């Protein structure tokens, strides 16, 4: 039932109105304990810059989101180096970018991003950045409830190794599993180059749904 509703909402649109969202592309992810493990941070940044070039050519809005933790905290201290954007992205910031500071996993929770998107007629958000296993996942899930179509660029989002009382998985496995999970219901997942081609044509990315993903040959 969820899948059919989502498929209807995210079905092919002749001319998606996109915004490119840079999620937490911050220095914190270049160092321990949250260093991106897969894909490599430098490879993710290459793809993010490719997406930025395509967005500029297409004239679509860009949103730059940064996560803020508590002042003096161990990660994302708003006054610390980890809060800052990665230098490659900081060097590309443009006056027209929408800047957002968030304090929750989702880019929409406690921010003015949703009304800003609505005012501009955006119906499709393209997510790049960090992490696949936290803020990308949370944002895509909330996007469904908001009626927004979400795209995730698989080679422009990174993951970390995870180990806790519930189990463990290395970053490659985390990334692969989450891309399949997202594409099964919450987002259209594609490589950056595929997205760039779709953007140049004003075309949607192909999407799937939960039922199709569940019955596909394994």
Main attributes?
218 residues; alpha/beta; Rossmann fold; two-stranded antiparallel sheet; 8 strands; disordered N terminus
Protein described:
- A hairpin with a 2-residue loop joins strand 6 and strand 7 (167-169).
- The protein has 218 residues and is α/β, with parallel strands linked by helices.
- Helix content is 38%, strand content 20%.
- The chain is built from 8 helices and 8 strands.
- The chain has helices at residues 2-10, 41-58, 87-90, 113-119, 132-146, 171-183, 192-201, 210-215; strands spanning 18-23, 62-67, 98-102, 124-130, 149-158, 162-164, 167-169, 188-190.
- Helix 5 packs parallel to helix 6.
- It has a 6-stranded parallel beta sheet with strand order 3-2-1-4-5-8, with helices on both faces. A two-stranded antiparallel sheet has the order 6-7.
- The protein is globular.
Shape: globular
Number of strands: 8
Strand order of the largest sheet: 3-2-1-4-5-8
Regions with pLDDT < 50 over 5+ consecutive residues? 1-10
Q: Percentage of helical residues?
A: 25-40%
Mean pLDDT comes to 93
Instruction: Quote the beta fraction.
Output: 15-25%
Distance from first to last alpha carbon: 22 Å
């Amino acid at each position: 039932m969820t899948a059919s509703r989502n498929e209807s909402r995210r079905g092919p649109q002749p001319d998606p109105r996109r915004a490119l969202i840079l999620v937490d592309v911050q220095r914190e992810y270049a160092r321990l304990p949250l260093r991106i493990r897969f894909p490599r941070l430098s490879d993710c940044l290459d793809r993010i810059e490719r997406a930025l070039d395509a967005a500029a050519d297409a004239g679509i809005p860009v949103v730059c989101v940064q996560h803020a933790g508590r002042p003096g905290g161990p990660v994302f201290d708003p006054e610390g180096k980890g809060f800052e954007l990665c230098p490659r992205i900081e060097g590309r910031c443009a006056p027209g970018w929408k800047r957002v500071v968030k304090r929750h996993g989702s880019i929409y929770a406690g921010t003015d991003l949703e009304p800003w998107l609505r005012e501009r007629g955006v119906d499709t958000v393209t997510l790049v950045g960090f992490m696949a296993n936290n803020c990308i996942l949370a944002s895509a899930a909330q996007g469904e409830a908001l009626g927004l179509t979400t795209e995730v660029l698989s080679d422009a989002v990174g993951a970390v190794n995870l180990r806790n009382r519930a189990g463990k998985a290395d970053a490659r496995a985390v990334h692969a599993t989450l891309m399949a999970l997202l594409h099964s219901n919450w987002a259209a997942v594609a490589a950056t180059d595929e997205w760039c081609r779709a953007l140049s044509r004003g075309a949607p990315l192909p999407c799937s749904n939960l039922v199709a993903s569940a019955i596909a040959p394994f």
